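Appendix B. Worked example

We walk through a single record from start to finish. Start with the input: the chain for Glucose/arabinose dehydrogenase, Curtobacterium salicis, length 372.
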Amino acid sequence: MTRIRRTVAAASVALVALALTACMSDDRSGPSGAPRASTPADLATGQVAPDGATTDVVTGLEAPWSVVRTGHGADALVSLRDSAEVLELTADGETRTVGIVPGVQHGGEGGLLGLALHDDDLFVYSTGEDGNRVERYDLRGSAGSYELGDATTLIDDLPANTFHDGGRIAFGPDGMLYASVGDAGASEDAQDQDSLAGKILRLTPDGDVPDDNPFPGSPVWSLGHRNVQGLGWSADGTMFASEFGQDRRDELNVIEPGSNYGWPEVEGSGGEDRGFVDPVQQWATDDASPSGLAVVGDTVFIANLQGRVLRGVPVDDPGTAREYFAGEYGRIRTVLAGPDDTLWFVTNNTDGRGDPGAGDDRIVQVPLTTGS
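Next comes the structure step. The output line below is what the pipeline stores for this chain.
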């Protein structure tokens, strides 16, 4: 039994993909060989796009999964999936170990996964001996000297497997903690409201079930998911989630409380007449494997593993997309807003499924331009 601690539906439309990368050099070591992106000529007001040459923020990471900035300039925390280390990336580009999350059982896609910061606490999603779990750690010290303090388990015994572990956690604009839980290989459980497999969960920062969740007494926020790995919100509160499909279609969904997104009855679009919510955009699985997601301005940026590309999707036209850095950096796991009007994205070539290049894995930074 799972223990909980007490203390825009739209039809899928065709993808409009515009390849905007240049400088196809494999040399990532310096500005002269760095891939570049150019602002699209038709960038609408409020939309955001990469514009300029990339630079490496840090290199030599082993299977990085999640990155959260601490709010102190370029200082950030990074999770390493296999070693269960939380690293601090300091403003000068150096790394130091903040701590090792105890009891992490790495295997396949499991291990130390999502991170989130809230009120000076670090929230961690990881795979333990008895399944996946979400813990809250006191984050002690300050920039350059952070340490992991005491841990409190918020929810555990979440479904786990060597694949489909979900793992993304994020705080919404309502101050609640959202967590994606994969179907853990038991696809039928995604349709079972009483199972936490194949769900997006919503909890208070203390691990309680909010009174306004759609199913009384349940942490379930939405169901019918296969393996959500990206969560984010636009300025108007719209919640977006990126999701791995199986053989046919990967998805970008707009998440509404209590809604059912169809897996395994439906993969991709075609479920509305059966009471399921269709994705606002879908891709062939070979072209996507959408992982981390970040909303910056009026653009949803999506990191893609199998597709080896960064996509930008307009919030007000989510059935379209632009592509950046296609094939330049290999697998891309995570994307987030960087400091000083930049975008960061995280490669994932050392996790056993990629083809590592010199310096992999890395966090990459690129300047951003906002349409006006």
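Two observations about the output. The two ends are 52 Å apart (CA to CA). Confidence is low (pLDDT under 50) at residues 1-31.
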